[in-house]
Each structure stands twice: as C-alpha cells, then as structure tokens.
Structure to design on (160 residues):
C-alpha cells in the first residue's frame, strides 16, 4: 500500500532532507511504501492536494503566505482531515500554544533530530492501518473554494 506524505517546507535544504528521509523508507511489509511530495508554499500544497489525497502532512511553522498553524485548517478541508505533523527550528511558549490549538498529531522541534520525526510518522501510518484506510481516501478531492479563501486571507494581510 502506498502511503502519501505531503511535505510543506519553504527551505529547500530542509525539504530535501525530509524527502530523502521518507522517499526510500519502507513499511513493515514490502508492499507498503512512502510517496513524498514537496510544496514550498501553502498555495502549492493546496494545488497538489486537489489532485492527490495525502495520508500525512508535514508542515513547517514558517511559510511564505502564513504561519503553518494557520494553514492547517485549509489543508484539512482539502485532504479529509489527515494527521498533521508541524515542524519548527525554534520554539517558544507562545508558538507552541498556537500550534497545539490546531490539534496537530505531533509538534516536532528539529533539534530533536530526524529519527524522531521518522518514528512519529511511522506511528501515523500504524494508526491509519488500524483504522483500515478505505479506497475513498485515495480519491482526489478538488476544492477550488479553498484557493479563493487563501487569496482572501492574503489580501486581508496586505491591507493590515
């Protein structure tokens, strides 16, 4: 079974590290594998999500258009509420509070290392296996209204 991961990361070096971390990773059974896609912005992530349903989203807290925790509700709308792992290089109490309000699966601080992120992501897929993913989750979910919401959000931010 293919496990699809969307990585939303604006830093190309970090994005490539995450891509390689999961791209060659295999599950407990040889028939399982991870397919990873990289988006550098929320807009690109939304476009990718309209074509493919992802089983897990790994999103950076600092994105070009908005903070990652603000993008989570948009991503969940398109992707049928997948588990979200949010990452950051620097943590503060205020940031962690905002992130946790979004009910993320895991809040990963990069200084903890990539092995921890890999372990957490495996946990996501083990939980999904227990929930018996249905074929419906693999169907594309086009929701063009979300792109309009993103544009409105960006317009409002510029006006402020």
């Amino acid at each position: 079974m293919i496990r699809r991961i969307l990585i939303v990361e604006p830093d190309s070096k970090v994005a490539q590290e995450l891509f390689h971390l999961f791209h060659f990773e295999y599950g407990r059974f040889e028939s399982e594998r991870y397919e990873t896609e990289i988006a550098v912005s929320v807009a690109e992530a939304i476009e990718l999500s309209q074509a493919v349903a992802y089983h897990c989203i790994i999103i950076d807290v600092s994105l070009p258009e908005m903070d990652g925790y603000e993008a989570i509700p948009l991503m969940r709308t398109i992707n049928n509420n997948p588990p979200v792992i949010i990452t950051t290089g620097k943590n503060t109490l205020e940031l962690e509070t905002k992130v946790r309000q979004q009910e993320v699966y895991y809040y990963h601080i990069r200084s903890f290392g990539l092995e921890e992120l890999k372990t957490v992501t495996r946990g996501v897929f083990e939980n999904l296996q227990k929930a018996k993913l249905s074929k419906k989750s693999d169907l594309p979910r086009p929701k063009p209204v979300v792109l309009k919401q993103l544009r409105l959000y960006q317009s409002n931010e510029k006006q402020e």
User: Anything to note?
Assistant: The mean pLDDT is 81. The chain has one domain: 2-159. The longest strand covers residues 2-8.
